[in-house]
Amino acid sequence: MSVMSLFAPPVAMAPADRNARRHMVARLGLAWLGMMQVMMFAFPGYLRNQPMSVENQLFLDDAIVLLNWLSLVLTVPVILYCAWPVWKGALGRSRSRVITMDVPVALGISAAFIPSVYATWVNHGEVYFESVTMFVAFLLTARYLEFCAQQTMAHGAFHENIQSLRHALSAGADRIALWFTVAQLTLAALAGAYWFVFAPEHAVAVTVALLVISCPCALAMSVPTAIAAAHASLYQRQQVSSRHLEQLSKDTTRVAHQNLYGSMIWHLLLTPLAALGYVQPWLAAITMLVSSLAVAANALRLYRRQSRELAGVWVGRAVQG
User: Fold this and answer.
1) Lowest-confidence pick of 80-89, 211-220, 294-303
2) How does it sit in the membrane (predicted)?
3) 10-25: b or e for each residue (b if 16 or more CB lie within 10 Å)?
């Protein structure tokens, strides 16, 4: 098994799992294409405040109007098709009165998209289409990594100790993610209300940034990626001693806690900056992706360390032989 097998498709994958993975890749690819194109269309808007002649200013304003409509057209399929699992999860859980990570994501998308549509229609105000598409693309990237890790767990070499560890860590991580999400949603509502009263022009940007930060993508990935690394390392070994299994459990627990609490600290550091208006929605989306990639890289580091130890054992046996 290669180093990248931690996130590679398992060999013995059921047709349903393979089909689900293909749909996820299709949504992910379309979201990234839409994001890149909408970001190109949004670039002239950043030049609006630059010094220029009146004729150039009028030409730029006309171009921005056209590009905003084009951005709207490209953002709609990203929201309806790419983000469909988000809407499905948020609506399904809300009927059961259960708050999941889909709820802040759906609120963040709606809070950025609806005012942008209105601003485009009346040709007045700020639009956040690039932030919406960026948020969806980065969110799907994080969820794809989590999905691959879960599939690795499902098709890996199961061990009772690792499975017990998975249940224990997942229970704690789910509780932390739930309370974290509730607290972040409350803060986003309070901060949005404050800015709406004292500086309405910044209320949408601050609220969307806080809602994006409230998405616990990295927290949700913390345990699955660590457990997937443990299963992948066990899959390489023909025999597992109790001593090695005990050490692997400790290393997996440490990595899962690093992922979980490191992600929380990262989000908590950004939250006051976003509440004060220093973090734009697109920057909040980038930080969300960075934290998710950091979680995946930390789990991959555990897998690589286990692979190097196994390679050392093989070399030692070859020398003895």
Assistant:
1) 211-220
2) Multi-pass membrane protein
3) beeeeeebeeebeebe
